[in-house]
Amino acid sequence: MGKYKIVYERDVCIGAASCVAVAPMVWELDKENKAVLKGGNKTDDPNIFEKEIDEKDLQLNLDAARACPVNAIHIIEKETGKKLI
Ligand code: SF4
Fold it and tell me: How many other CB atoms are found less than 10 A from the CB of residue 75?
């Protein structure tokens, strides 16, 4: 179980691909030019995907989230529910 989770809002994504440039092992673009969170899980909301990550992967994922121009990527500390971005 990861300590953090990535929360991705697909409907907010504009396909700028900054996340893909920063973390290509985590993100790719689909045919609609929307980011895909690799290995991400669907949620009750069809536009929201989540993926757990470990501490060692936190910095890279924070960098990718910060690179997103429309703030479609969030990172939550699971234990506290604190939103890091
Ligand atoms: S950086 Fe943001 S807007 Fe650009 S592809 Fe990634 S999620 Fe979408």
Answer: 19
Beta partners for residue 6, in sequence order: 51, 75
> pLDDT of 43-81, one tens digit each?
999 999 999 999 999 999 999 999 999 999 999 999 999
Q: How far is CA 74 from CA 31, 78, in A?
A: 23, 12
One-letter amino acid at 77 equals E
| pTM for the predicted model, two decimal places | 0.96
Instruction: Write the CATH number of the domain with boundaries 4-77.
Output: 3.30.70.20
17 lines ligand 1 (CB under 6 A): yes
Kindly state the tokens that stand for 64.
């990718």
The rounded Å distance from CA 47 to ligand 1 centre is 14
Under 8 Å between Cβ of 32 and 40: no
In this structure, the residue with its CA closest to atom 1 of ligand 1 is 68
